[in-house]
Structures are given as structure tokens and as C-alpha cells.
Amino acid sequence: MPALVIVGTQWGDEGKGKIVDVIADRVDAVVRFQGGNNAGHTLVVNGKKRIFHLIPSGILHSHILCMIGNGVVVDPGVLLEEIERLEGEGIPVTPDRLKISAHAHVIMPYHKALDNAREMRKGKSRIGTTGRGIGPCYEDKAARAGIRIHDLINEKVFLEKLKNNLEEKNFLLRNFYGVEPVSEEDTASRYLEYGSRLKPYIDDVSLYVNRYLAQGKNVLFEGAQGTFLDVDHGTYPFVTSSNTLAGNVCCGVGLGPSSLDYIVGVVKAYTTRVGSGPFPTELSGDLGDQIRERGGEYGSTTGRPRRCGWLDLVMLRKAARLNGFQAVVLTKLDVLTGLPEVKIATKYRVDGEILDEAPCDLETFSRCEPLYEVLPGWNEDISRVSSYQDLPGNTRRYVERLEELIGVPVWMISVGSSRHETIVKRPFFEQAP
Q: Which residues bind Mg(2+) (predicted)?
């Protein structure tokens, strides 16, 4: 049975968490492979809304082993809060249900301080980070100055690394950014306590994943953010600080490329993004506000209102190429109900030239004008529809046109936030090798 990768096709917030939860009863393990607690996955089960930032969405299923890979940057305080919250709701998060890679890097207080200080200094040119310290943590990882999860349980090593890092970070915070330095004593005490509490969860995630696959078990790899927040292939510099593409599963978990069987992209029926950066199909008027309110488009992590716009097939075709999708899942289709027409951007126009592909240059991309294909809308309530054939004709026309334009079949369609509000359009998972 397969190793299945679920990734976002846009700028994140596509509904990946719900899709992982929907298919989790068919897998044995769910693994996060990149990002940090700047991402939030929202699940609605039996009318109760839960938001996850670090723990994989499969934790609500008692038979699943959840794992956090080495490609994730971990804020131990946030992780422990999530564990405590779930335990308080009667959902056990014991070490036999959650494993954290010993090689995952730790978000430290100075990372968050630097993140916020930089954004304040940039003013109007700010990127729009969440202030969670994600970028500075990945910087230290690349600079070989990072603190890993296993360092938290080795007091001598941790204190030495903390001292060396604070010498540099506090100099920057105090003398360049003009903000308060981070206390070495308080940080040492707090993070060593975190290490003591997390010690039972720390393990070799790469070894677990490879053993599971060798035993014929199903493993689902859960991405955070979306394709165009990838640090290499996204709308740089308005991106996250890790590789969000499916290919990063291998590095972010410790797995050979030949082990991946199927890659599925999650597509929202319209487009949203949080923070700054170009957005060709953005709607700035009443229609954009209407979609935001109907779709509940506010950040799970920050509460920030998301920018909303029509579906962009130029970007989706690129996402399919970058990730190698075998299928896609369409989410939030119900939000478009009641619109007299729905639009799909199929090309761009810039400087008098028609483009089928997005330009690599951000300045040119920011000036692209979308060229739309217009389809008729539908008024029927689709949130209670359970069969694809029972969808209104215009709804099916929209879905099938997307399949033609992306060149990838639609596997499932989400028509609401709950598990049961999901339509399987065609068998897929059961056919995986």
C-alpha cells in the first residue's frame, strides 16, 4: 500500500487538514515534513472545531501514529500546549501515539524576537510573517548554528549552544534593532524543562517511517503552507522559509524518493493568500469580502483576514508540474454557491504579451493581468450532496473544466467543513500500488 503525500497547490489554507482527517481511517501513520506553528490546520468533527499547529491532523484517529519530521521547526512550548489541550479533551497524546524527530530544530525566544524586530524595521516593506520565529530558526539551521530537539535533553550541549547563540542574537537585538535582549538564565531554565517533558516523545522518525513502509503499512505525509510559499519556487521573497513541495518529503523525513507512491494536491475552489506579495486574481471589492465571510477566510494561526480572488489555473498548472500530482482534491466548492458566474484565470497579459506560464521575475508577475474564462454559477445548496452525480449541472461543469485545465483528475470534493461533507468523485486511494 502507498506512501501518500498531501500538499497545498496555492498559497496555503486550502483545507489540507480536513482532507488528511477524512482519509486518515485508511492509513497507519501521518507525518508532518516541513514548516512550523506558523501553519494552522482546522478540523471540524461532530460540530467541534479544533486547530492544530504542530501535531499532525491524524491524531483524532486512535489507531494512527503521528510523527513530526526533521524538516519541521518546533516551538516546544506550543507543542506541549497542544498536547495538554488534547489530553484535556480526552484525546490521548502519549509517546506511543506521537514521535518527534530528534533532528528537528527548535524555535528559540531569540528567533521570535528577531522575527518581530525585522518586520517592524521593514515597515511597509514587511513580508507579513506570523512572528513565530520560523524564518530565523531555519536560518540558524542553514548556518549550522541551530539547536535540535535532542539538544534539549543534553544540558551541557544545550547550555553551550544557547550561550554562543545569545552572544550574537542579543547584540543584534540590542544594538541594531533597539529592543530588549533575551534572558539566558530564563531561557535555559524553561527550555531544559521543555526537554524533560518532551524526552519520551523524541525518536528516530526516519527509521519509524521506513519500517512502516517496509511492513506494507500506509503512511500519509502532511504538508504545511502551499506550493507558492516554497522558498525556492514560490513568490520569493513573499514565501515561507522551507520547501513546501512534495519533493521535500524525502529530506524532511528521511526517506528515499522511490518510496513515494502518490502525490495529491489540495485546491481551494477560489484563491486566497495571507500577508504581502503579488496576487493576480485578487478581488478587492464587495465580492472579495463576500467570499471571505462565506468561506471564513481568517488565519487559523493569526486570525488575519485572507485576501480572496478567483481560481488561478496558470498557478495551478505550475503547481501540478512542480509537485507531480496524480490527483487533486477540490475544497470549499460550496462557498461559490449563489454567484451568478464563476471565473477561472487561464492566462496572463503583461506588457502587451499573452502568457500561459507565470513569469519568474516577481516585478513582472506583480503586473500580470489575469485573462478569465467565465462559467455559469449555481444557486442550489450543495452542502448536503453526497454523490457527484447529484451536484447541479453547472457545478459539475465547473469541476470538469478544472480537470481539463489542470490535466489532473479530481479525486474528492469538499462541500463543507465537516468530515461527512465530502464527495468522492472517483476511486483513487484504493487503486494505489
A: 13, 40
Instruction: Note whether residue 100 is domain-resident.
Output: no
Q: Give the CATH number of the domain where residue 152 resides.
A: 1.10.300.10
Q: Name residues whose C-beta falls within 8 Å of residue 373's C-beta, 6 or more positions apart in sequence.
A: 343, 344, 346, 401
301 labeled part of a ligand binding site: yes
Question: Residue 398 carries which DSSP code?
Answer: H
Q: Where would I find the beta strands (DSSP E) of 228-359?
A: 262-268, 271-273, 307-309, 311-312, 327-331, 341-350, 353-355
Q: Residue 166: which H helix or E strand, with range?
A: helix 155-171
Cβ pair 89, 235 in contact under 8 A? no
**Co-location of 374 and 312 in the same domain:** yes
The question of whether 53 is a catalytic residue gets the answer: no
Q: Indicate whether 121 and 153 sit together in one domain.
A: yes
* 332 marked among binding-site residues: yes
The catalytic residue among 141, 169, 268, 343 is 141
Co-location of 246 and 326 in the same domain: yes
DSSP per position, 59-77: GGSTTPEEEE-TTBEE-HH
Domain count, the chain: 2
**CATH code where residue 375 lies:** 3.90.170.10
Residue 311 three-state SS: strand
3-state secondary structure of 52: strand
Distance of CA 294 to the CA centre of its chain: 21
Are residues 75 and 39 part of one domain? yes
Q: Is the pTM of this model over 0.85?
A: yes
The residue that leads in pLDDT, 125 or 27, is: 27
Residue 291 and residue 401 in one domain: yes
Q: Are residues 21 and 90 in the same domain?
A: yes
Burial 69-107 (b: 16+ CB within 10 A, else e): bbbbbbbbebbbebbeebeeeeeebeeebbbbbbbbbbb
End-to-end CA distance of the chain: give it in Å, rounded.
Answer: 6
Is-catalytic flag, 99? no
The reply to whether 425 belongs to the active site is no
